[in-house]
Specification:
This protein is α+β, with helices and mostly antiparallel strands. It contains two helices and five strands; from the N terminus they run H-E-E-E-H-E-E. It has a five-stranded mixed sheet with strand order 1-2-3-4-5. It is globular and about 45 Å long. The chain starts with a helix and ends with a strand.
Length: about 100
C-alpha cells in the first residue's frame, strides 16, 4: 500500500483523538549565514515535539534514519519516530538527537 494512504489514516486518527499535529511540516535549512532555497518536509510533527516519518517498504534502512536525523536537526526537536507499514507487522524505530 502507498505511504499516502497510511498518512491519511494517521491524520484521521490524530483528528479523531484531538491530538495536536502538523502534516507535511516545512523546515527551513540554515547554512552558515543563509537559508537554503530547498526545505525539509517532515511527514508529521505530533504534539509539537515528535517527528513522525511514515514508510511502507521492506524495512527501515540507514537512509530513513539519516533523513529523520536531518529533520530533527533542522527542527531543533529531540525525538523522531519512523514507522514502517511495509511488513506483516508494524516496524518502528525511535531516534533521539
Amino acid at each position: 500500500m502507498k505511504e499516502f494512504i497510511y498518512k491519511d489514516a494517521i491524520e484521521y486518527e490524530c483528528k479523531h483523538k484531538q491530538y495536536f499535529y502538523e502534516r507535511e511540516k516545512e523546515f527551513l535549512i540554515h547554512y552558515k549565514d543563509i537559508i537554503l532555497p530547498h526545505k525539509y518536509f517532515a511527514d508529521f510533527v505530533v504534539f509539537g515535539k515528535i517527528i513522525l516519518e511514515v514508510k511502507s517498504c521492506e524495512g527501515i534502512v540507514q537512509e530513513h534514519i539519516g533523513q529523520t536525523l536531518n529533520y530533527l536537526a533542522a527542527s531543533k526537536l529531540k525525538v523522531g519516530l519512523i514507522v514502517n507499514f511495509g511488513k506483516d507487522s508494524l516496524d518502528y524505530k525511535r531516534i533521539v538527537l
